[in-house]
Prior knowledge:
Helix content: over 70%
Number of strands: 0
Largest sheet: none
Amino acid sequence: MKIFLISLWVAGSSALIYLLISQVLEPFGLDAVINVLLFIIGAIAVVMIVIGGLRYVTSNGDSKAVAAAKETVIYSVIGLTIALISYAIVNFVLTEIR
C-alpha cells in the first residue's frame, strides 16, 4: 500500500512540475529565472565562504572556532556543488521537454 501511495505521489508531483514549467513559468522565460536563481545561490555561497574564512582568521587558535569556520566553508562548497548539479539536471530536462 505504501509503494502505491508513493508512486501515486510521484506521478502527481511530476504532472504538477510539468504543468508549472510548461504553463506558468515558460511565458516569463524559464531560462532567465533559473539563471537569476543560480546567480543568487552562487553569490550567497561566495559570501558564506568569505565569512568562513574570516571566522577562521579570527579564531585565534580556538579549536571549536576553527572547526566551525571549516564547516562553514565546507558546507558552502557543498551547497554550491549541489546547486550546479541541479542546474545541470534542470537544463537537461528542459532541453528534453522542448
